[in-house]
Amino acid sequence: MKRLIKNGRVVDPQSGTDDTLDILLDGGRIARVEKRIPEKGAEVFDATGMVVAPGFIDMHVHLREPGFERKETIASGLAAALAGGFTAVCCMPNTNPVNDNASVTQYILDKARSCSPVRVYPIGAVTKGSKGEELAPYAEMREAGVRAVSDDGHPVASSAVMRRALEYAGSLGMLVIDHCEDLELVGDGVMNEGPVAVRLGLHGIPAEAESIPVRRDITLARLTGQRVHIAHVSTRLAVEAIRAAKKRRVPVTAEATPHHFSLTEEAVIGFDTNTKMNPPLRGQDDVDAVIEGLADGTLDAIVTDHAPHAYEEKMVEFDRAPNGIIGLQTAVPLALDRLVRTDRVSLKRMVDAFSSAPARLLGLEGKGRIQEGADADLTIFSLRKETCLAPGDIKSLSKNSPFLGVKLKGAVMAVIIAGELYPAAKKG
């Protein structure tokens, strides 16, 4: 079937395109990208006043299944991804059992295909059971469909293990994504270390708990010549270390989350457990550094770190609550409102961070670009329409978000996956 997207502002960072164009889709591929393409029987979607971008890819999602289905299932998580404007997601391996082998990978892929058009790229564990000791069987997982490995939620403390992981994964063309956290420095900390933590009587986590392992990983990437990707960067110290390493051509890349460029530690003052996350919300200077890093490309990708938790898990004392918030349906509006509308990050850079950069990092052929022959995966959004999500609008099983009820300028209008149109259906 042919579908024609007309009159949209097409933003394709890979080709440098930013112009009002028509896009003709033929089945699962992009057939033409030109001005004023004749309709000739194609089904038309009028994108006047909207931005048409390569399909957004979330590199960092927790779908929880198998093992934690009361928090989220693959079906509910992918429903949230579709509503949030994502054509593909990468799910982290901290399930039960841990995704450290081909059988768990295959289970996730089979379940995803049966319930959603959103493509899933499972991320395998760096080490067996994510215990930080013995490397998982990367070759077996790669054959099953894994493109990256991570022990997310569990830092790889051993430098020797991380070195071997970089060498083994690199030989297979797989990306190593590291959760950088020095657990000894973290101790019993539950929020950012500083005056706010002192005022609230909560144990703090210093910025160095992130920046020290970041510098370790950079050193190992330089030693091995293999790529390392730093997850959810939250501090100026880490941003500056990554920026300096890139200038020295060390193969390091990194990502940031909307909550780390939208909120500061001040959000914790009300003891709302939906503001408890790992890494924690930081100070304003760190938030500014994350935004600067996204603007200049030091931080390559924007990810959600979508971390659903059941209601009763979060309804406890702040220091006992689990870390994390959901983010699939708020990520794009937050980026549009807090980055693009304020002119701190260009629209092209934001689109790159959500689409072209993840496709490049993961080696996804046909993704992240709007060009003839590319996959017909598109995210269509408005810079002017407002988003304000109520709990009933959330597709995830869990509702743990500090952004519900917050008005944001920017909204997802539709998603196209393999040429099929999925209009947005949420309240504004």
Tell me about this structure.
The protein is built from 13 helices and 19 strands. With 428 residues, it is of the alpha/beta class. It folds into 2 domains: 2-51 and 374-423, Urease, subunit C, domain 1; 55-362, Metal-dependent hydrolases (TIM Barrel, Alpha-Beta Barrel), CATH 3.20.20. Strand 12 (191-192), helix 6 and strand 13 form a beta-alpha-beta unit. The protein is globular and about 65 Å long. The two termini are 31 Å apart.
Number of domains: 2
CATH superfamily of the largest domain, by name, is Metal-dependent hydrolases
The CATH topology assignment of the largest domain is TIM Barrel
The appropriate CATH architecture of the largest domain is Alpha-Beta Barrel
CA gyration radius, whole angstroms: 20 Å
Helix content: 25-40%
- Share of β-strand residues: 15-25%
Q: Topology of this structure?
A:
Blueprint: E1 2-12, E2 17-26, E3 29-34, E4 43-46, E5 51-54, E6 56-61, H1 74-83, E7 86-91, H2 102-115, E8 119-120, E9 123-124, H3 138-144, E10 148-150, H4 159-171, E11 175-178, H5 183-186, E12 191-192, H6 195-200, E13 204-205, H7 208-224, E14 228-230, H8 236-247, E15 252-256, H9 258-262, H10 284-296, E16 301-302, H11 311-314, H12 331-340, H13 347-362, E17 378-387, E18 408-417, E19 420-423
Parallel strand pairs: 1-4, 1-5, 6-7, 7-8, 9-10, 10-11, 11-14, 12-13, 14-15, 15-16
Antiparallel strand pairs: 1-2, 2-3, 5-17, 17-18, 18-19
